[in-house]
Amino acid sequence: MSTADGGARPSAAIAHRLPNITYVQADGAAQSVAVRAGMSLMEAALRYDVPGIEAKCRGNCACVTCHVHIDAAWQSIVGAPGAMEVSMLDFAEDVDARSRLACQVRVNEACEGMVVDVPQAQRILGF
Ligand code: FES
User: Fold this and answer.
1) Helical (H) or strand (E) element with 43
2) Which of 71, 49, 54 is nearest to 122 (CA)?
3) How far, in Å, CA of 127 to CA of 116, rounded?
4) Residue 51 counted as domain residue
5) For residue 111, how many other CB atoms are within 10 A of its CB?
């Protein structure tokens, strides 16, 4: 299917590949962005200049400057953290059961509406 100007019209399947993810800061400021399935939450945060996600190691699971909180309901959709991620979280602040490293979480088509909280410490530490 194409548009009058010859461009491709997005199908429902393509639109589904751009789930909307909302990043919420500790002060409640929210930023919703459309993220291509397959990108990491860190890559999307950098692309859209989400505050508090510095990602100093650029996704190598070696710096914890991409620490975020994801509620349990979404954890089951994005999968459990690997052993290296769990180990690295020992070095982050504000760690709890929701903690994930955004570079290790891949967005998939079932992530539509997912909320990602940026812990207060990410801002305080200048991450
Ligand atoms: S970007 Fe460094 S641990 Fe995620």
Assistant:
1) helix 41-47
2) 54
3) 16
4) yes
5) 20
Backbone φ and ψ of 71, nearest 5°: -65, 155
How many independent structural domains does the chain possess?
1
Q: How confident is the model at residue 98 (pLDDT cuts 50, 70, 90)?
A: very high
What predicted TM-score, i.e. pTM, was given to this entire model?
Answer: 0.85
Q: Which atom of ligand 1 is nearest to the CA of 60?
A: 2
- Atom index in ligand 1 nearest the CA of residue 88 equals 3
The reply to whether 6 falls in a domain is: no
Task: Give the confidence band of 125 by pLDDT, cuts at 50, 70, 90.
Answer: low
Q: Tens digits of per-residue pLDDT, 9-19? A: 444 444 468 99
Q: Is residue 7 part of a domain?
A: no
Q: How far apart are the first and last CA of the chain?
A: 44
> Is the C-beta atom of 125 inside 6 A of ligand 1?
no
Of 102 and 124, the one with more pLDDT: 102
